[in-house]
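can u do me a favor
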């Protein structure tokens, strides 16, 4: 269904390109109108040697929106979050521009998980556009134009997709700058050999230069559920913009295979064979290794309108509630994990995203099934409150990597899982819940978390994770994660923006918080 619609959509878009486009786009610290030249081929007819003229993009206030009518305290909070982003990015830009990630304690650089592949730079580009940071964006864009992704190193297919492909495709949709689309295609093409397996389930690691792929030894040679199930938004969108169906075909085949081997209880083990149609091991979780598989089924249905994926998501969402969902103190909710037949009452901060997922799912069935809408929205709120407790249980008001539930109470983890790594998932859920409910509790939780970040993680160079958030004065882990700029600060900023800035009926966010326009 999706593949059949791609060519029609592209013909319509091509007609718009011939006529010229005036797009209303909800970005910036106010709603903005972005005007493009009548020809969207920005690589031609300009004197700039790079082929891109920044002055073809003009940003101004929309007539009818008056920033002065907004609560000054809300605008002030949004500006504070923007300043935090500028501090974090300027530290990276000054000391590590084009490299992986900043060491915010020393001012040195870390290669990051993608081996110095401009990780923070690309991951931050659409956040710059959303916040109206033109100068930073254009400097980043000029660097991307010169980048060579033909690296002789083995890196994660999943992380490259959500951060690099996702970041480039999102920035392209905002700007229609074909340099970004070309770079996106360049990277995606280098990921395609990972799909050359016996059953089309992609390997998790690939050497970008040699095209040799494999799975890590620690998985026993298996692929990971969350990784193979979190490629679909980006690759389907790339097929839409390039009119090349190869990207969509590869990732939708993965879903076809996973649907065929779905367990009877609907709970997917996290390790999937790339040689035979089956699973290895019996670990089940919506935290790390399982998480975004469920998220992307829902978001693909929202992105494309395909009812097959919509039905599949609601089936799995119900199965998760039945098999792993637990209430705590009436208004708290969490998902346990399962190992074989044993339930383990452990909840990762990574799993806090499920509140936003259930809220988005509830909103998209609101006028079809009111009972399911109410049930799923209550689950979303319960997760939002539970994740708020994960913050407030610690003296830093910042969460650990996971918690356990025992005797109807949240218990902090041992030292190995006590770190705070700047994750966005709780704030992501609070953002969705604010948009859909307007309950001020969600903004309050977000603001408290932001103040805690300023107090405990800010350095002279940027922001650092913490080694143990259970301590009153924790040591810093010396890493400024790229997703802190791509996700954490972006969701905080949007939490205090008007609803017409990236409206949720017009955009869907990939799992790295890169917004993609609903097709």
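np, heres the sequence
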């Amino acid at each position: 269904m999706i593949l059949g619609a791609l060519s029609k959509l592209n013909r319509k878009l091509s007609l718009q390109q011939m006529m010229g486009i005036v797009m209303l786009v909800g970005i910036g610290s106010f709603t903005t109108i972005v005007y493009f030249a009548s020809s969207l081929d920005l690589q031609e007819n300009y004197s700039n040697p790079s082929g891109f003229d920044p002055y073809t993009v003009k940003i101004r206030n929309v007539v009818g929106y008056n920033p002065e009518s907004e609560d000054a305290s809300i605008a002030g909070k949004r500006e504070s979050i923007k300043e935090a982003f500028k501090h974090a990015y300027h530290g990276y830009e000054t000391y590590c521009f084009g490299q992986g990630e900043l060491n915010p304690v020393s001012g040195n650089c870390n290669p990051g998980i993608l081996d110095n592949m401009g990780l923070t730079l690309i991951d931050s580009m659409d956040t710059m556009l959303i916040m109206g940071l033109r100068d930073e964006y254009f400097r980043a864009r000029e660097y991307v134009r010169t980048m060579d992704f033909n690296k002789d190193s083995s890196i994660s297919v999943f992380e490259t997709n959500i951060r690099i492909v996702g970041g480039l495709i999102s920035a392209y949709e905002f700007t229609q700058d074909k340099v970004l689309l070309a770079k996106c295609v360049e990277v995606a093409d280098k990921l395609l050999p990972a799909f050359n397996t016996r059953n089309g389930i992609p390997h998790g690691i690939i050497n970008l230069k040699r095209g040799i792929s494999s799975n890590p030894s620690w998985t026993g040679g298996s692929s990971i559920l969350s990784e193979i199930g979190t490629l679909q938004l980006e690759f389907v969108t790339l097929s839409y913009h390039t009119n090349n169906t190869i990207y969509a075909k590869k990732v939708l085949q993965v879903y076809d295979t996973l649907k065929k081997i779905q367990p009877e209880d609907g709970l997917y083990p996290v390790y999937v064979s790339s040689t035979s149609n089956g699973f290895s091991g019996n670990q089940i979780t919506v935290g790390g290794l399982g998480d975004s598989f469920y998220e992307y089924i829902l978001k693909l249905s929202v992105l494309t309108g395909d009812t097959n994926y919509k039905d599949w998501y609601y089936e799995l969402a119900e199965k998760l509630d039945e098999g792993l969902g637990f209430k705590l103190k009436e208004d708290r909710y969490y998902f346990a994990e399962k190992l074989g037949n044993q339930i383990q009452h452990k909840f990762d901060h990574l799993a806090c995203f499920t509140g936003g997922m259930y809220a988005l799912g509830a909103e998209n069935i609101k006028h079809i099934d009111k009972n399911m809408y109410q049930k799923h929205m209550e689950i979303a709120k319960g997760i939002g409150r539970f994740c708020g407790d994960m913050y407030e249980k610690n003296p830093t008001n910042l969460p650990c990597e996971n918690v356990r539930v025992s005797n109807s109470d949240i218990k902090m983890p041992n030292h190995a899982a006590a770190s705070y790594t700047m994750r966005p998932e709780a704030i992501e859920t609070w953002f969705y819940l604010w948009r859909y409910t307007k309950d001020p509790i969600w903004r309050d939780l977000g603001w408290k978390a932001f103040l805690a970040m300023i107090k405990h993680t800010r350095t002279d160079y940027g922001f650092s994770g913490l080694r143990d958030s259970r301590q009153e004065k924790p040591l810093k882990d010396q890493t400024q994660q790229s997703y802190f700029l791509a996700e954490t600060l972006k969701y905080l900023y949007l939490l205090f923006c008007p609803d017409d800035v990236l409206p949720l009926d017009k955009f869907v966010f990939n799992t790295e918080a890169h917004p993609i326009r609903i097709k």
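DSSP finds 16 helices and 20 strands in the chain. hope that helps!!
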